[in-house]
Structure prediction request, 724 residues.
Amino acid sequence: MIVDLQHYLLLSAVLFVLGFFGVLLRKNTLVIYMCLELMLIAATIALVAFSHFNDTLDGNVFVFFILTIAAAEVAVGLAIVVALFRQRGTVQVEALNHLRH
Amino acid sequence: MNPVNTTLLILLLPLFSATVIALGLRRQGAWAAGLATAVAGAIAILSWQLIFSGQRNFPAAWEWLRLGDFVVSLGFKFDDLAALMLFVVSFVGFLIHIFSLGYMRADAARARFFGGLSIFMFSMLGIVLADNLFMIFIFWELVGFSSYLLIGHWHERTAAAEAAKKAFIVNRVGDFGFLLGIIMCYWSNGTVNLTALGAQHVPSTLIALLLFCGAAGKSAQLPLQVWLPDAMEGPTPVSALIHAATMVAAGIYLLCRINVLMVPDALTVIMWIGTLTALYAALCAVVQRDIKKVLAYSTLSQLGYMVAAFGLGSLTLRHEMGGVVHEMVVATGVGAAMFHLTTHAFFKALLFLGSGSVIHGCHHEQNIFKMGGLRAKMPLTFITFTLGVLAIIGMPGLAGFFSKDAILYLALEKNTAVFAVLVFTAVLTSFYMIRLWKLTFWGAARSDHAAQAHESGFTMTLPLVVLAVLSIIGGYAGFFSRLAGAVADLVPEATGAAHSTILLVSLGVMLTGASGAWLFYASAETDSLEGKFRLGFRGLTGLKESFDRLYTYYVAKVQQRLAMLLNFIEQIFLAGLLIRGLGGVVTLIGYGARSLYTGSLHTYVYWFLWGTALLWAFAVGIF
Prediction:
């Protein structure tokens, strides 16, 4: 079986949709966080695939940036989640609606 | 000193005094009184110097405000008319300041009173010296303000506070017409400078009548006369200065100033308004009980005389000189009005100050039916007051005789109907004046206050004596011509048959009225007229109150309803729709927007989803 661009894109789309529904439906902030990362990974897979099949490095360059930013984001995001847990004793999103009032 | 500087000094000295009193001497009543009186004295001396230096019409004008092509300038127009008025204002003003020293000695707010007098002197002198209508208007309003201040001097009394308010509001009505007149005058002539208007102007009845509105307000002519009798709530020196001698005469002075703008139609209206005011006020004066109210209505009546004289207008005089007949038109209306204004200022100030002396002596009793027998107790007041009474009723040889005859002669020549009314008014004048005189000074004292009356002090009797002298000599050519210069030449003089007619008529009138009142009124505590002619008495009282009733009705029914209607519209449209409506819409939007913020992360994600879908739809071109 020849693995071509469509397969990569399909994988990317499936991962993205999984991530998106995870964000939509899960209640735990940590899980939502992981789902967000999943969506980012889906995008990177698509970019790497484009880069490979077009014989250019543009996509790869993007990927480097995305990885860098994602690493920084994870560091900040996890710190927030930890701080939130310490403060409130929970990380369930239904409980985190204080800005509404 | 050069005349411009003298004039400037005359104008600014009282302002200086008023400022110093307002800023620094509020609690030092004696100092304030001294300063104001000293300034009034200085003005009198400077005015004397200026009037008799013979300098007239010197150029003095400064640009004050420039708005594009529109220039407002301030300047002096000092001609014979202004000189005459300046004499009246500064000298009568000074005498009244001296009188006030005694009259207001025990008043708690003496500083405020003298500060008010100073600001009044400043504004009045401004009107006298102004060379254009805008400047006159500015000082006109200032005069109204100082009048308000002084009428309401005893503002703790409701009547005084309301009288001050009434005077101010009624004057605003007249001033509104005046302002419109000035604007129209500028619009059609391009200038409001009096000298320039004299040289060239477009004749217009409307402008003349609108300007007369201002004069009618200040000089309390029908139908704006209601404020003057109420203004007697103020201290008596104020009544003498403002509401008898000077401010109310400012209307007449204004008319003489704008004489060039007058047209026959406007003059006819002015003449009839003056005549009717004279008659109306004389009728009202007959039934008054308050000594000051009698004098107030008498003032109204005399002002009506002056306005009527002005309205009668010019006479064509014939001169035969060497067989050639010269005809010349002389503005006799101005002459007669100003002549009467001058003599009236003397004897009416005298009468008011005399009444002030009486009131002071009787411990603030103002009802003439509670006086009586003051002749022996207040001899100097009695003698001077008698001279004033004789002057106003036209006793030959006294000032009022000459000026009133000039007016009657003019009326005889121009309009018989007006002549008849004015003659009848003159009968009434001597009737009510003798009534007042007899009830106050003759018979026996009818109350404890009158029984314990005492003569007033030196500062109060001195002005009485000086004014009495002026009331005697004021009418003689030797005095008046020297003072009034060219204005004196405008005074109509009866010659030949007309002379004897006028003389006989005025003598007959005086004797009829005077003897009628002397015989009719008993020295009793009730009004003889009320006892014997109840119907007539009630008619006259009703006449007096008719205007107040009418205005009260108008204000209560018409104006109040209009105001309520406007308030309703304001509540519905402005406050309701525009302000609360707009606010309501914004609030609703706010509520809507707030409901989007649920605080639930998932809702936000859905919103994000739909937003992305929408953007995608736009990008693809579905919308």
